[in-house]
Amino acid sequence: MQINETKTETSRILKIGQRARKLQEEQKTPYLMLHRGVNAVVNIDINSIAKSIDFNSTDIQVYPGTAGKEKLRRAISDSYFKGKANPENLLIMPGGISGLDITFQNIQVDGIALPNFFWGSYAQLAKLRKIKLNAYPNLQSVIKYPHKYTNQLVIINDPGNPLGEKHPDTDIFNAIDRLYHENIPVLIDSPYRRVFMDDEDDLYLRLLKYPNVIIVDSFSKSMGLSGQRIGFLHSQNKDFIQEAKQRLLYATNGVNAFAQELIYKLISTEEGKTAIQKFKRETSQAIAKNIDFLINNNLLSTEFYKNSKPMGIFASINRIEEELLANKISAVSMSYFSIEPEKYKNHSRICVSVPHEKFVKYLNPLVK
């Protein structure tokens, strides 16, 4: 049998997780799992929401439709776009990574331009779809030299992965505006933003001004619902959405109906909104405390945050992967998140979205 090879690699994040779990089992002692992009401060309480769903209804028992349930797409427009987004420009995705992959398949470009530090799966998806990968040093470079990215898809990831850096929104919009006037497409991938912002956040509403912008978002990240595998994609380009819908049709034939119903109730009912607010409040407070601990104890890789501030669920610290593992902490070397791996092997990415007391307990031995 002849096989078409993907030419991709197994995620370093997955590998370090497997290694840490094996060590944990062998040593019969718990490890702090900071290699993952999972909000683990608290779980969002969905028990009462789930009880209100009729599992015997046609909302659950039949195919949900390729684009996703219309009521959910309208609710997303209301919650994320102040009701101004056309639901026909929204597609429900089985997680954010599916939205990224369909975008990479869908758009004709010479390459993809990523931040200097980027989530490793971007690179593997680009390799899978045979697209050239490039990097831009910072948003200031994009603002100053937008023509350098002609015929490329520019990805803006904020708060970022792996650094968790938050750039000023003025810089983000200046970059988008400059790229718009050069007719360069932009992908906004900000799945963690809503952890730190409330419903008054107008980022996506303001993005409707730019027809060159594609948005991918994930409820898996912003609500701690990784297990449900659900997110959305938005574009005002009708041809893009039509082709994306066809790819989604033959990849999934629609996204899990229960997950769609659950998200609909979370973002459209008072009970659901209360559950989200509680989850975000407790999560963001713990993250802020954990970042302060890193800063106050000289563990943060401060050189990476010259034009931004750490705010997201990740941070880079000035300790190597092996040292952290020896202290029963799973983390991923920063060399995995750059096209220049040797330059950053003395730093590691950690997830800071864990309970503060547990975080301090495991990180304290590293303080010098």
Strand percentage? 5-15%
Fraction of helical residues = 40-55%
Output the CATH topology of the largest domain: Aspartate Aminotransferase, domain 2
Computed Rg: 20 Å
Number of strands: 14
Q: Report the top-level CATH class of the largest domain.
A: Alpha Beta
CATH architectural arrangement of the largest domain: 3-Layer(aba) Sandwich
Mean pLDDT: 94
Largest sheet: 7 strands, mixed
Distance between the first and last residues' Cα: 56 Å
Q: In oligomeric terms, what are we looking at?
A: single chain
Overall geometry comes to globular
Q: What is the domain total for the residues?
A: 2
Low-confidence runs? none
The H/E string reads HEHHHEHEHEHEEHEHHEHEHHHEEHEEEH
Tally of contiguous helical segments: 16
